[in-house]
Design a protein that fits this description.
Blueprint: E1 28-30, E2 52-54, E3 63-64, E4 66-68, E5 86-91, E6 98-105, E7 107-111, E8 117-124, E9 135-142, H1 143-151, E10 156-165, E11 170-175, E12 183-186, E13 188-189, E14 199-202, E15 208-210, E16 227-233, E17 246-248, E18 255-259, E19 267-273, E20 278-284, E21 290-294, E22 301-308, E23 313-320
Antiparallel strand pairs: 1-4, 2-16, 3-13, 5-11, 5-14, 6-10, 6-16, 7-12, 8-9, 8-11, 14-15, 17-18, 18-21, 19-20, 19-22, 22-23
């Protein structure tokens, strides 16, 4: 078990303990200043209650991070001398028909020596007793980019090439760099007794443990880390005429043709990035049912087009290449 001693116990330094995975005994201290509410805010519009939601963002409570005292080293929520492989968050609530397009993360620490690609992933819950099982989606980002995000107090965002359809509880995590000189650590919610923590890690031997597990940090580290899935859903429609919506070509290099239902009112068209940020918006007369638009000014990637009036609400995936 990892034993945790918070700041007012720092005088009780412990020596001569085993570093074995099965008997972690670690003194911890809350490092530096708490995260400010201004830093790391998501740039642009977050689509809560519409098509997309960045789940648990921003994280509530006082946000901080923890590092290990000597003779150990590193971070509870990142690389450490126990050589933890993955830091992950559990998400037990989900909506059938939704899909995850990417991950937002907020790092407190990032140091790069060899600039490896840092992998972010989604794990299903097919492990023993609902533990993380198979990595079902992933995307990566160079560590140097994360270092820059930390330096300028930006969030880190990755987008999956193909959205992952959610059909059960899942885990969102980051695979930690293996080189000793390459380091990352996430922000986390300050430990509070009675809080139901959702943080998990994978040990160097491949086993998964919740932070709250008696074999792991136990009830001395009840926390949630700043890992947030970007979850989107296809909104419902009120008439079967929506089935007549056609977008072509798809994939496209920029110019696309749209055919849709006829309406007695203006029909709005909003284009969203895979992160849920609105990047383009227009409205068309309802009587115009066949028209072209040029999206060649947008970067290549996955987007979502929402067409909407008071009786219809349609969302389509669009790929620009």
């Amino acid at each position: 078990m990892k034993s945790v001693y918070l700041p007012f116990f720092l005088c009780l330094l412990i020596s001569g303990f085993s570093a074995a995975q099965e008997s972690r005994r670690v003194d911890l201290v809350r490092a530096g200043n708490p995260k400010t509410t201004e830093s790391g805010q998501f740039p642009g519009q977050i689509l809560r209650g519409t098509e997309c939601d960045t789940v648990r963002f921003p994280l509530s409570g006082e946000i901080t991070y923890y590092y290990l005292m000597q003779p150990e080293s590193g971070y509870v929520t990142g690389n450490n001398s126990y050589k933890d492989k993955v830091k992950a968050e559990y998400f037990g609530t989900f909506e059938t028909g939704s899909f995850i397009t990417g991950i937002v993360a907020e790092f407190a620490v990032a140091k790069s020596h060899s600039n490896p690609d840092v992998v972010f992933g989604i794990w299903d819950n097919t492990g023993t007793n609902g533990k993380p099982g198979v990595m079902v989606a992933s995307a990566s980002k160079p560590l140097n980019s994360i270092v820059s995000d930390v330096q300028y107090e930006r969030i880190t965002t990755v987008t999956f090439q193909e959205p992952y359809p959610v059909n059960g509880p899942y885990y969102v995590g980051v695979v930690l760099p293996e080189n000793l000189a390459d380091t990352v650590a996430l922000w986390c919610r300050k430990h509070v007794e009675g809080y139901s923590g959702t943080a998990w890690d994978q040990w160097s031997d491949g086993r998964w443990f919740a932070f709250s597990d008696p074999s792991n940090w136990g009830n001395t580290m009840l926390t949630t880390m700043t890992l947030h899935p970007i979850v989107c859903k296809t909104t419902g429609i009120s008439e079967p005429s929506d089935a007549g919506v056609a977008i072509s070509p798809n994939p496209s290099t920029g110019v696309i043709n749209i055919k849709r239902w006829k309406s007695s009112e203006m029909v709005s068209m909003n284009i969203y990035s895979a992160e849920g940020k609105m990047v383009y918006s227009r409205a068309f007369p309802g009587a115009v049912t066949d028209y072209n638009i040029d999206l060649g000014f947008l970067p290549r990637g996955i987007y979502y087009m929402a067409l909407r009036d008071s009786r219809h609400n349609h969302l389509s995936k669009l790929i620009l290449q």
